[in-house]
Amino acid sequence: MKTILAYGDSLTYGADPGGGPRHAYEDRWPTALEKGLDGQARVIAEGLGGRATAYDDWTAAADRNGARILPTLLDSHKPLDLVIIMLGTNDLKPFVAGSAAYAARGARRLVEITRGHFAATGETAPQILLVSPPAVVETTNENMLGNFGGLDHLFRESREFARHYRRHAEETGVAFFDAATVAKADPRDGVHLDPANTRAIGVGLVPLVKQILGL
Amino acid sequence: MKTILAYGDSLTYGADPGGGPRHAYEDRWPTALEKGLDGQARVIAEGLGGRATAYDDWTAAADRNGARILPTLLDSHKPLDLVIIMLGTNDLKPFVAGSAAYAARGARRLVEITRGHFAATGETAPQILLVSPPAVVETTNENMLGNFGGLDHLFRESREFARHYRRHAEETGVAFFDAATVAKADPRDGVHLDPANTRAIGVGLVPLVKQILGL
Amino acid sequence: MKTILAYGDSLTYGADPGGGPRHAYEDRWPTALEKGLDGQARVIAEGLGGRATAYDDWTAAADRNGARILPTLLDSHKPLDLVIIMLGTNDLKPFVAGSAAYAARGARRLVEITRGHFAATGETAPQILLVSPPAVVETTNENMLGNFGGLDHLFRESREFARHYRRHAEETGVAFFDAATVAKADPRDGVHLDPANTRAIGVGLVPLVKQILGL
Amino acid sequence: MKTILAYGDSLTYGADPGGGPRHAYEDRWPTALEKGLDGQARVIAEGLGGRATAYDDWTAAADRNGARILPTLLDSHKPLDLVIIMLGTNDLKPFVAGSAAYAARGARRLVEITRGHFAATGETAPQILLVSPPAVVETTNENMLGNFGGLDHLFRESREFARHYRRHAEETGVAFFDAATVAKADPRDGVHLDPANTRAIGVGLVPLVKQILGL
Amino acid sequence: MKTILAYGDSLTYGADPGGGPRHAYEDRWPTALEKGLDGQARVIAEGLGGRATAYDDWTAAADRNGARILPTLLDSHKPLDLVIIMLGTNDLKPFVAGSAAYAARGARRLVEITRGHFAATGETAPQILLVSPPAVVETTNENMLGNFGGLDHLFRESREFARHYRRHAEETGVAFFDAATVAKADPRDGVHLDPANTRAIGVGLVPLVKQILGL
Amino acid sequence: MKTILAYGDSLTYGADPGGGPRHAYEDRWPTALEKGLDGQARVIAEGLGGRATAYDDWTAAADRNGARILPTLLDSHKPLDLVIIMLGTNDLKPFVAGSAAYAARGARRLVEITRGHFAATGETAPQILLVSPPAVVETTNENMLGNFGGLDHLFRESREFARHYRRHAEETGVAFFDAATVAKADPRDGVHLDPANTRAIGVGLVPLVKQILGL
After folding, report:
1. What residues form DSSP beta bridges with F7?
2. Fewer CB near the terminus (10 Å): N or C of chain C?
3. Which residues does chain D have within 8 Å of residue B96's beta carbon, measured at their own beta carbons?
């Protein structure tokens, strides 16, 4: 039995683009991935709304800096066979980091933290899979546009995700998946995913995860 | 379907008193509790080795101060029906806090954080169940005795857990369970639990959790 | 006798737009408000130059993140009948947060902190009054323009304060006052207030505060 | 008109040893001091329950480390003519610092912070008056004894306050006052003061403060 | 024998603009300065890649906020005769601070910290020399341009360094040197210096340092 | 040419047990070690008075937690061939950690940090040499005894240093040296070293360091 940590933000949490309750357990992508792995792995979901890769955001009670919290989760859930990191959308908020390049650099820091964490004590490090975020879509949701610096900014930067994440994945030698190839956001807020697109990420990850874990 | 957060330390993680690998998934108490609830609840296990209630310990890469990390976990796993807090053993280390009274005060702080967290945004707070740690036993494990200030200190203080935790539970109006009534440590290190005693906590909690959640 | 906490920045402190000494005690708006309440309330002034709502700024020895310091002040001055929050101008500095929308979101976080703080321990929460900052005016003060990202940025964003603050006040159910209706900045630096405009805020708040407190 | 900052803990806050509401405004020592200065000074009260000199205590929502918060208060209330520091009792809790010598060392750090704070920017530093805490008395309050490490510990250490504080005051060249010469705790909890003893500190400080400020 | 602390970033560290190993010890500017002082001073090099003046950047394991680390280095290397501060280039990254004006304000904070640090304990403060960063040059290095917000931003802001640094140096009464008068970056990445330009800073500082230290 | 980082406290700094100025450069042990290595290595001295291994002490302006600062120094001085860690004496202060076992555990954390730091980015880690502190001696210095919990405590714990450090060195596979075999404290304060004993540490380390570095 393999153990997988899914480290993400509201897209991993399963936030409803309509502002309603969290998506059903079955619709969240870690669940869909676990189902697709046919009982050969457990997927631990750690998705925090608003989480950024390695930047601070103190507008919530939870610590949204993914770099500060990750070591705690690695130790709480070890031994791990695979860590899947899908973060970066919140980094696009101008007050957080503001660009896909910074998001990708922050995501790379999470790769480094994971590796250094286990090397420090001589424990075996898990495999790592870096996922660039799904595509945003046009929206008229004023609140969301305010948060993300306007539609032009959001569009221009989100289209750069895959290019930057792929490069960092290659340079660090970890696996890569572009979630925009399987999922796109809901026009109600332009950023969050409906249940079908949320599940699609889990389903889309199955072949690559099987290959990584030799399942 | 109910959702329960199990917030704990190495006893929730499932650390082996012999220094071997983590207890099997089936032997950890959150799993045993979930099994006992017959499919009516999911139990999310967040057990970090060395975690204290509300005191710092920087001798590990993970943040061991349970008060600093809790808000992040509450938001990652909400909506929650019940939060079970079983922490305090590590507080007995003299450099951490050093007494059962302080452990209980720290655990009360976690109750306060949980309530304030959801009240801040007008969300419904989960029920809370405060669990005082299981009984320590005599050991000749020098390393463990060094960590915990010697056997006399460890014995004297751990016997005070239930009294202090019960009082704080009553004063704050949360549920209480004394894990020492169902589980005791393994003499190999005096503090950690063998698989049977680990499972016993989950099994022991079933009736009370059913009552709290109306199952 | 009621107790009111005035939580603010340099405008609450009483900074002189000409760079001179702090405005006289009588000219600061918390004093003017207290005077207008005819001995029925004490107003505790906590105005820190450079304070932002919930964002970091480490260019001063004082901690300017209003979210980190607020719990300490709530406990130092409780029981409180009313907390007046007038912050946000410093958030407009591009390196702090950079927009009225973020300032308003940060101010909402202070509302959440205040409510969660007292709910955590079962204490009665004070009323809350959210004040959107006074209007900035044209200036040729190069230093100030450098700090605030230029006149265009400062103007465009500051004109959005009231709209965003009012919305958050309504959504969270707290009282709202637009300070720009009674006070505008001094052209010497474009942001700070002369004594008359400073007093005007206190005088302007009197009717609403009386209504909130039932005086 | 002079301005005085009274920086303290629950004894400055005016906590009731019987667990009831805060002492009346008129009974708190900063008020008594202000009254004794006959309108020649304003005394700003910043007393936080549980505040220690320069040590952490995360069992409350407020930041209790007096060294971390002091710069913010110095800037919020400057220009100051005098800072009165009366802290140290909470340092006696074994998990905080545990001895009068450490309390005094922490109080000296607050003297250093105050001086460095204003020297950093070339502003004039206020005078400083270091006050060693009032005498504790015998009590049977189990909760309080648990907090403070038992009666023997509390007695032995609190009797050392004046000696250590006086030495640090002399070495740093600040004024010194021993509050135990005018006030002693209430036997209901052994540590906190009744209204009469609280007022006595303010009254007792009047002559020395007048002398320091040349009133 | 005098002691000088060289507090800087990758330009002080001696990073290779071609991405290769660190410049040789002899080529780093603190070494060149020490050599030029003819055995009359030791220069302690503390150059950290990515260090900003007083802003956070959590994308590395090292703490890059120069304001948080400086007190530790001042105490580790005291008594000091001179502190040379050459920081600011990394502040131009949009997610760090984003402008020469903010870089200069952050550098001023380091001047304040140095002065307050020694005044706090009554120790003699060192002289301070504020150095505005060398000139950036055109580059096609995409990675670097991504980090620094593009060539236009990098050019416009870096040309403002000297003006802002000189003003803060004058206002605080510390010495000033414009490194752009002696060194410019390597076109391979537009920001870092080749060995010759690195040495040139040390050589260029010799006359002013001699004058400051009376050598 | 090899590069060695000497990471320590006041014993590495060269504090005078008589309270006078810092020992001469030539008398500090990193200098003596460098001299003994005959020009084949540079030894970078980073000794901070009061530094503990991995525990907080906020009674000074400098950050005394050796675990928080180490990554910054590793990056400032890399590439490194050897890191020598001689810390632990300050951990014996009861409010810091209070025992040789905790000091050794903290020192082990520094070993882990060093290894994880370079593994995170795939850089080559330096060799590590763990040094248990020199012997304390009897003293009548009241201030020092107050700081260190009295002579009995200081003696009992310091005698346990070598045993604990050797065990952790063996378990982590790093080199070990017991400084008490070559140096003992000065009776004027019982903890600090006179120039001869300070130099003796550097001289004593030469053979082992040569062996480690293959010189």
Report:
1. F46, F85
2. N
3. 95
pLDDT score recorded for residue F135: 84
Which of E35, E26, E205, E54 has the alpha carbon at shortest distance from E127?
A: E205
**CA–CA separation, B36 and B45 (whole Å):** 15
Alpha-carbon distance of A43 to A3, in angstroms, equals 6
Report the run of H or E that residue B45 belongs to, with start and end.
strand B41-47
Inform me whether the C-beta atom of residue E213 falls under 8 Å from chain F C-beta atoms. no
If DSSP codes are grouped into helix, strand and coil, which group holds residue F156? Answer: helix
Query: What's the start-to-end Cα distance of chain A, in Å?
Result: 10
Cis peptide before C79 (omega within 30 of 0): yes
Determine whether the interchain pair C146/E99 forms a contact, defined as Cβ–Cβ distance below 8 Å: yes
Looking at domain D2-213, its CATH architecture is 3-Layer(aba) Sandwich (3.40)
CA distances from D60 to C117, C120, C121, D14, D125 (A): 10, 10, 10, 18, 31
DSSP class of residue A39 equals: T
Mean pLDDT on A10-23: 96
**Cα A191 from Cα A212, distance rounded (Å):** 29
Cα B114 from Cα B174, distance rounded (Å): 11
CB-CB contact of C5 with C80 (8 Å): yes
The CA-atom distances, in angstroms, between D74 and each of C47, C193, D111 are 11, 22, 12
R_g of chain A, CA atoms, integer Å? 16
Contact status, residue E81 vs residue E2, Cβ threshold 8 Å: yes
Counting beta carbons within 10 angstroms of the beta carbon of residue A18, is it exposed (0 to 12), middle (13 to 18) or buried (19 or more)? exposed
Q: Where are the beta strands (DSSP E) in A58-202?
A: 82-86, 127-132, 175-178
CA distance A115 to A126: 8
- Give the pLDDT confidence of B6-24 residue by residue, as tens digits: 999 999 999 999 989 999 9
Counts for chain C of helices (H) and strands (E), in that order: 8, 5
A200 contact partners, CB below 8 Å, separation of at least 6: A29, A32, A182, A183
Chain F environment of B59 (Cβ under 8 Å): 54, 67, 102, 105-106, 108-109
Domain residue ranges of chain B, discontinuous segments joined by +: 2-213
Reduced to 3 states, what is the DSSP secondary structure of residue F85?
strand
- Residue range D27-43: mean pLDDT, rounded: 98
Tell me the three-class secondary structure of A59-79, residue by residue.
CCCCCCEHHHHHHHHHHHHCC
Query: Helix or strand or coil: residue D5?
Result: strand
Q: Which long-range contacts (CB under 8 A, 24 or more apart) does D104-107 make?
A: D104/D132, D104/D161, D104/D164, D104/D165, D104/D167, D104/D168, D105/D53, D105/D54, D105/D164, D105/D168, D105/F59, D105/F147, D106/D52, D106/D53, D106/D54, D106/D55, D106/D66, D106/D67, D106/F59, D107/D53, D107/D54, D107/D165, D107/D168
pLDDT of residue E135: 84
Label residue D196 exposed, middle or buried (CB < 10 Å: 0-12, 13-18, 19+): exposed
**CA end-to-end span of chain C:** 10
Strand pairing category for E82-86 and E127-132:
parallel
E chain contacts of residue D122, beta-carbon cutoff 8 Å = 115, 172
ipTM, 2 decimals?
0.97
> Pairing state of beta strands E82-86 and E175-178?
unpaired
Q: Which residues pair with C44 in a beta bridge?
A: C5
CA D52 to chain centre: 9
| E40 close contact with F: CB closer than 8 A | no
The model's pLDDT over F2-57, given as tens digits with 9 standing for 90+, comes to 999 999 999 999 999 998 999 999 999 999 999 999 999 999 999 999 999 999 99
Q: What stretches of chain E show up as alpha helix (H) in DSSP?
A: 10-13, 29-36, 66-77, 100-121, 142-147, 151-158, 161-172, 195-213
What pLDDT score does E43 carry?
98
CA distance C113 to C122: 14
pLDDT higher than threshold 90 for residue A94: yes
Find the closest chain A residue to B10 by CA distance.
A76
End-to-end CA distance of chain E: 10
